[in-house]
Amino acid sequence: MKIQKHTIVQRVFYSDVRQDISTISPDLGQVIQWADNHPVAWDIVTKTRSKAFGRGLCEYIGCAQRSMSPDAVLERLRHFKNLIKGKTPYHTGDSIFLWRARFTLEHYKEKGFRGGFFQQHDSRYPRSCLTLDYTPETFEEVLDRFCVWMDCTYDTQRITVDGKIARVFKSHAKAQDS
Q: How many domains are there within the chain?
């Protein structure tokens, strides 16, 4: 038997912002570079302040949901970056899913930033729902965007955010007053 030593050289990509994050994957190296250029993205995917893209959310698959391992953090960042850049197989340019990622990136550091569970209701059932981030100043804009996106098949009576009525539609407000 012969034994030989082989030296293997690997390129390792390290974050300038998060010293604990590195990878040998060139694709994830690009994710690190993007996140280092947008440092708030690191906070968005590693903390729980964003209700749309924070750690522990069903937006992410499998172990990437909650884990703080470098691989899991990079998978959350990859998903978030792809939404920001519009590089997802399921969503097009004006999709609310792309819009909400861009919105979160833009507004995350603003005072009063929070998220909520937006839900459409008709006379019988809750219908469309989506978790969206907002600030007190942007709440109406986000609510309007949700209303454009929600399922218009149903006769919507109200929209709730975290179970509290956020908007009642006039046709139903008049019917309730009668």
A: 2
150 residue type, one letter: M
Tens of pLDDT, residues 44-60: 999 999 999 999 888 87
Cα 13 to Cα 53, 70, 78, distances in angstroms? 24, 12, 15
Find the angle CA(26)-CA(75)-CA(17) to the nearest 5 degrees: 70
Q: Say what the pTM is.
A: 0.87
Its domain, for residue 151, covers 114-177
Q: Do 89 and 134 share a domain, yes or no? A: no
